[in-house]
TrEMBL record, chain A:
Domain of life assignment: Bacteria
Record keywords, A-Z: Membrane, Transmembrane, Transmembrane helix
Transmembrane segments: 49-71, 218-237, 249-270, 435-455
Protein name: Secreted protein
Automatic annotation (TrEMBL), chain B:
InterPro entries in alphabetical order: Bact_solute-bind_prot3 (IPR051455), Solute-binding_3/MltF_N (IPR001638)
Similarity comment: family membership: Belongs to the bacterial solute-binding protein 3 family.
Residue ranges of domain Solute-binding protein family 3/N-terminal in the record: 93-314
Protein name in UniProt: Glutamate ABC transporter substrate-binding protein
Biological source species: Haloechinothrix salitolerans
The keyword Iron-sulfur is assigned to this record: no
Amino acid sequence: MRDTADRARYQTVPQQPDDARSLLAALLALPGRGLRSVIRSAAMTPGRLTVIAVGLIVLTALAALTASFAVRDRSDTLTDLTERREPLAAAAQQVYRALSDADATAASAFLATGEEPEELRQRYENDIAMAGSSLSKAASDPAATPRMTAQIDVISQQLPVYTGLVETARTNNRQGFPVGASYLREASALMRTVILPAAEALYRIDTERVAEQQDDAGGFPVVAMLFVIALLAALIATQLHLKRLTNRVLNVGLVMATLAIGVGVLWSVAALTVQSVYIGNGKDDGTEQVDLLVQARIAALKSRADETLTLVARGDGGAYEEEFVRLSGRMAGDDGGGGWLADVAADATDGTPLASEVALAQESAEKWLRAHAKVRELDNAGDYAEAVQLAIDVGKPDGAAVAFVALDDHLRAAIEEARQAFHDDTTAASQVLTLLAPGWIVLGIIAALGIGAGIRERLREYQ
Amino acid sequence: MTGHVSGRLAAVLAVGLVGVLLLAGCGSPGEPPNLAPQVTAQRPMPANAEVNPEIESIGAVSDDCGNPTASLRPKGLATPRGSTMAKIKKRGILRVGVDQNTFLFGFRNPTTGDLEGFDIALAREIAKALFGDPNRVRFKAITSQQRIDVLRNGTVDIVVRTMTINCERRELIEFSSVYFVAGQRVLVTKRSGYTGLADLAGKKVCATTGSTSLSNIAAAPSRPVPVAVDNWSDCLVLLQQGQVEAVSTDDTILAGMAQQDPTTHVVGPKFTSEPYGVGIPKENTDMVRYVNAVLRKFRENTWQAVYDRWIEPALGPGSPPKPTYK
């Protein structure tokens, strides 16, 4: 009845423009006129119901889409974390490790008299190859910051210079020229003062970015939550309004819509809680343990270089020995039972492969520190040849070389275990969210259909 | 009417098109992004190398100690109870501060791992006199500037490390009689054409930190720029890398470098006289007399053989210097 009255009123408006100017004015006036007519019809119940239905459906679409996007976004962040960010940090760690090991190995090879031992030469060459290929991986990060690029620049520029110096040292050494030792010291100084600090900075930045991304993935999706709360409030208000209007308690369509959104909220809360537990586990048992282990491993490598360089310097190596004491203390304490290794052991769950690898690493560290004390004792007593043998001979079971290689192997294995723990937990966190993103779309559609059906049922009563 | 309108439209379109083309022509298209910028190589330096360091001893060399090479008269090879020698014998090993990077004087033979050279042979001679065994020595490789410190803090018993006797050092430590006389000259690459320190005005010249050679370079009238490093071999590294123009120190050390690199040679006259002595802590005067007694025998018996083995091929024939005593 009223609809036809409205239509009649529209027809009274003059529709024939006299010229182009009045046509333009009419066009400009259209939106205003439309809005006015909506407001007018909203003042009457059937029109108001239509407006409410449209508003609720639009709000449903917004809530479902933002929730779905927020979930998709977190899922993407987690995938990026496991597929790109953490592997990049691992590559940076490899660069750092390979370079430190190359420095330690070159010094060891130099200590050996006569022909250079084949296994040391091979280890050095593998280190350089590993450093080069890990560096290209670390450099492939499209999201690298200028600070990261600067570190990679330094390493790429200086690594060929370093290897050149080491080869010049070898050539001179083979001819019996003492200038070879000077080339080796220059190479080592370049490595320690320029290249390794850059590698360390790169590793630090990469590790920080992993931690940042973990925090991002565990954050609260505020915008989506606001929309969902607004939608729920609107649905409840509509139902109360309709109850007052019609004295009917239930509107099946609107109840269905409310239930659908409620299911979405419960599902989201559960999934996000489980997910953040998984992310937290991935951090505690994974990346934070990896970081401590990496620091321990680097300290071990630097200490090893110090041990051999003390002998290369032959009496002029007080500074190297001081650094050994400082670094090995931070790695494993004075007796293998303290330092970063003890921190990792304290946080590792008993019985896990990580815990057993760390225990083995602590054992090797203790053996190495004992062997090192013996090396220093021999060297200080003037038994240089014996000290060198104990330090670099891989055939001596109680020697420093064997203990160090065992320590490095166990630390490598422990790092792999911790990385695996991170990967498992973070992948699980991502899987928890897999169905939630499409789930929100489906629930949104159900809610919209419910709203449409529910309102139409009421409108029909007016016709 | 229609033709007129479409003609005007065409004109408007044409003007617009020309305008757009003009605008496009005026705006620069920019440059292609350059991912491989020009960089220059950063040359590596030996650890602790320093260009134009502060040289404390410059001008402070006191010449008021008379003849610095005059040492205490030898008193035979007895090692009475309570003497420094007796303490060393009780310990069972002679601790000697040496160089391990100076070819011909003190260097590590990479094939055997042993230290060799003129200074090493002399140190072994002293051990042989004490213990009857030339191998009862613990060599401690030290840098030039550590020579006086290790004697004063008792880390070593003697220093045999191409150490020039002078008045300034004599205030801090004792010296044996002279066992070798060298003179400062200049090592340059053959291609450079330099003939001495006079040609090296404003050029970088290398020597070890704390050496008299470094002070002499800084004090040269041609004003070269001194570069200080830890070890003499580091100077050769810098010369080979083109980071210094010359190395200037005792001809003996330079000869050892020239033997390691055939593209270099020693040039110029000897412009200093560097009498080498064994460094001994100031309070151990009994040890000074003992070492001088060993040196007396060394000059007579083995000096020539050791010289001929290490130095003669590089510097030609030589004879032992005459000792002077107080």
